[in-house]
Specification:
Elements (H helix, E strand, L loop, with lengths): L6 H19 L1 E3 H8 L3 H13 L3 E8 L2 E8 L5 E7 L3 E8 L4 E8 L6 H18 L7 E8 L24 H9 L3 E5 H12 L8 E6 L3 E7 L2 E3 L30 H4 L1 H4 L4 H4 L5 H9 L3 H25 L3 E5 L7 H14 L2 H6 L1 E4 L6 H13 L2 H5 L6
Parallel strand pairs: 4-7, 7-8, 9-12, 12-13
Antiparallel strand pairs: 1-3, 2-3, 4-5, 5-6, 9-10, 10-11
Length: about 400
């Protein structure tokens, strides 16, 4: 039994600090581990050697600043995590290991009107098929991250009534998927997972405070404060789509008028272009036409950017993030949407906050949410689980 403050308890705490740093970042050099944890280089070297001998981490040669270094990552044999992302029109599943390597990934169309049971059945089938095809032992699965396009009650895990998937409102997708797969499931909304994905793998790397803005069938923001997702006590933080821009504007699905969403979301924006481009126009196609010079599509995207910028300016004034990452298909329009966002931020945000803000497109595209689901499992799992796991044969 370890006594608090004893040498053994201090050593255990240092082991967990190193494992946590590597687990969060995916891979770090020993010098980076020392900076992240505050431990001395000698202590880090000894701990890494111990963790390597125990099968918890693997060490590979690399370079840092032109010098030879050793990269430390969690062992590929230490466990498997699964990400499941439900979108307005798709289901995407990814399987990865604890070294942040994606081992398998696949997406398929999803009928937006499908019931929760039908959607979860398809997720179960796709997860099991990917695990089997990759030759992975199901017993190595540590957990599943699940993303859904709507607010999640952090205490009960139920999906709120404003969810875009109408057949899912009031359900508990976390518990229902856990019962199907017999592993722990962690659930969050798609904007938060997009933020996590970009923070760990994409355009958010190196930023401690950022907002990931996803514009699709709805509009949401994933907020990162001091390197952690901020959800709020009820799990609804980041509902930027329901900031009021015009009290006399269109009626929003939330019941209010003139919400940001009613000026930017696909369901409201695309009909503006139906007369010129048909009713089957998608955001991706609109972006493509705009990049090719279509004046109507360029105008609509510019207007959307200005409106998003108004919402971002409010975020700047309240939270003062250092970076805004724009996700979803709209991000592919590049400066056609980013420049108007910056213009609105410059006009409406406090000057000091606007000057410090960087507005960039997401680097992961449609994969941001499913990779964020993998990162969610990695962030929720305990370090003791890895330290106490048996050494692989």
């Amino acid at each position: 039994m370890e006594t608090p403050g004893s040498q053994s308890s201090l050593h255990r705490a240092n082991l967990e600090r190193v494992v946590r740093a590597v687990r969060t970042a995916g891979s770090l050099t020993q010098a980076e581990i020392a900076r992240t944890t505050g431990l001395s280089a000698a202590t880090v070297s000894n701990i890494v050697r111990e963790l390597k001998e125990g099968g918890t981490v693997e060490v590979t040669p690399t370079s840092s600043g032109g010098r030879r270094a050793r990269s430390v990552s969690l062992s590929g044999d230490a466990g498997i995590v699964v990400g499941v992302d439900f979108g307005h029109t798709h289901l995407r599943v990814a399987v990865g290991n604890l070294a942040h390597r994606v081992l398998a990934e696949e997406a398929e169309p999803l009928d937006v009107d499908a019931s929760a049971a039908q959607g979860l059945d398809r997720a179960e089938h796709l997860v099991k098929r990917l695990i089997k095809d990759a030759g992975i032992d199901p017993g190595k699965i540590i957990g599943v991250g699940l993303g859904v396009p709507g607010p999640i009650d952090v205490e009960t895990g139920t999906l709120g009534s404003t969810a875009i998937l109408p057949g899912w409102a009031g359900t508990n997708p976390r518990d229902e998927l856990a019962s199907r797969l017999s592993v722990p499931v962690h659930v969050d909304n798609d904007a938060n997972l997009g933020a996590l994905g970009e923070l760990v793998w994409g355009a958010g790397r190196g930023a401690a405070d950022l907002a990931y803005i996803k514009v699709a069938s709805g509009v949401g923001a994933g907020l990162v404060i001091n390197g952690q997702i901020y959800r709020g006590p009820g799990g609804t933080a980041g509902e930027i789509g329901h900031i009021t821009l015009d009290e006399s504007g269109p009626v929003c699905r939330c019941g209010n008028r003139g919400c940001l969403e009613t000026f930017t979301a696909a369901r409201y924006v695309l009909p503006l272009l139906h007369s010129a481009h048909g009713a089957d126009l998608t955001v991706a196609r609109m972006v493509q036409l705009a990049r090719e010079g279509d004046p109507g599509c360029r105008r609509v995207i510019s207007d959307v950017g200005r409106h998003i910028g108004s919402g971002v300016a409010n975020l700047c004034n309240l939270l003062n993030p250092s970076r805004i990452v724009l996700g979803g298909d709209l991000a592919d329009s590049g400066e056609l949407v980013l420049a108007p966002i910056r213009e609105s931020v410059s006009r409406y945000a406090i000057p000091s906050a606007a000057r410090q803000l960087e507005v960039v497109p997401g680097a992961l595209g449609g994969r941001a949410e499913v990779l964020g689901a993998l990162a969610l499992v990695l962030s929720e799992m305990g370090d003791s689980t890895l330290l106490d796991a048996p050494v692989p044969a």
